[in-house]
Design goal:
13 strands; 4-stranded antiparallel β-sheet; about 35% helix
Length: about 325
């Protein structure tokens, strides 16, 4: 509990970004190690110390009565970050495969990396805001209805209902604090799924290597284009889902259902560029590299494949 400390909170940990320090130029005793930060479109390169980027005031804090601040989520994330940093230094950098306990920490770090960011928070706020608006409209309709209509509405709402349901006040709280409210259930559910999937660590010796961003963990379904736009959401139960999170410029965690993608795997420069394009496309504002270098291929727009849903014959409307 605190009123003043830990207000500046990193949604991308500085210990994680440390792997992207530019080591090509020697630093003087008064110079701080830095990474290269770029706008999403690849412009505006600037040197930034990891402690000065990807922060937001009280993004994880729960405000309590009396002005107190509950920092348990911030401290919990900090403990997980330390486990990841140790694992990267003592295992992953030497291409030693994590043991079972270490794998849990690695996958938990990746799970948290997806839902602790402003981009994810804002998407959740919009989603729960829409639900709240629907509930408010339903409430107004109920209040304006006749007694007979209210009785009919009440009977319909009970059909198929299981469990205690959720109140408007609860929805409003989730909308306002989606990370704080959902961190526990989302970590548990995501980690449980990850542990059932195949894990690979993609490796490269390319001098630029993998970039990371303000949204380090990306979920993508490369087969989504074959479905109608309304069904292109991604979920871990989908057979073609791919989850990636750069570990360093030389390594990238890759989680999927494909048995062929397991263990340490050296990949081509073309595949590295594809992973980088995914991460840049998914970031909100900025990405990070360990050199002042970008490649045009990361920003290319590709047309829909010929077997995309849009090109299939659609049923005629009556």
């Amino acid at each position: 509990m605190s009123k003043a400390t830990h207000k500046k909170q990193h949604f991308v940990p500085k210990c994680y970004l440390k792997a992207w320090h530019d080591t090509t130029q020697p630093l003087g005793p008064r110079h701080t190690p830095y990474v290269w930060c770029f706008d999403k479109n690849g412009t505006n390169p600037r040197k930034k110390a990891p402690q000065n980027i990807f922060t937001e005031t009280d993004i994880y804090t729960v405000e309590l009565s009396g002005g107190e601040r509950d920092l348990r989520l911030e401290h919990g994330f900090s403990g997980l970050e330390q486990k990841f940093a140790e694992l990267r230094t003592h295992r992953l950098d030497g291409r030693q495969w994590p043991n079972a306990e270490e794998m849990v920490y690695l996958l938990a770090f990746a799970a948290v990396a997806r839902f602790r960011t402003p981009k994810f928070r804002d998407a959740q706020r919009e989603q729960w805001g829409n639900i709240l608006a629907w509930m408010e409209d339903a409430k107004k309709g109920f209040e304006a209805a006749t007694p007979e209509q209210r009785q009919e509405m009440a009977s319909i709402s009970r059909l198929g209902q299981e469990g205690p349901g959720i109140t408007m006040k609860q929805v409003e709280r989730i909308r306002d604090h989606p990370i704080q409210m959902a961190a526990g259930p989302m970590l548990e559910g995501t980690l449980s799924r990850f542990l059932q999937m195949k894990v690979a660590i993609l490796c490269t010796t390319d001098p630029v290597g993998f970039v990371t961003s303000d949204q380090p963990c990306v979920w993508i379904d490369p087969e989504a284009y074959k479905r109608a736009p309304a069904y292109r959401g991604v979920g871990l139960a989908m057979g073609s889902i791919e989850v990636s999170m750069p570990i360093s410029p030389m390594q990238c965690l890759f989680i999927s259902h494909a048995p062929a993608w397991q263990g340490y795997m050296d990949i081509s420069l073309e595949q590295v560029d594809e992973i980088n394009a995914r991460h840049i496309g998914a970031c909100r504002d900025a990405f990070v590299a360990h050199r002042n270098e970008v490649r045009d291929v990361w920003f290319q727009k590709h047309p829909l494949p010929e077997d995309a849903w849009e090109y299939r014959a659609q049923p005629a409307l009556d």
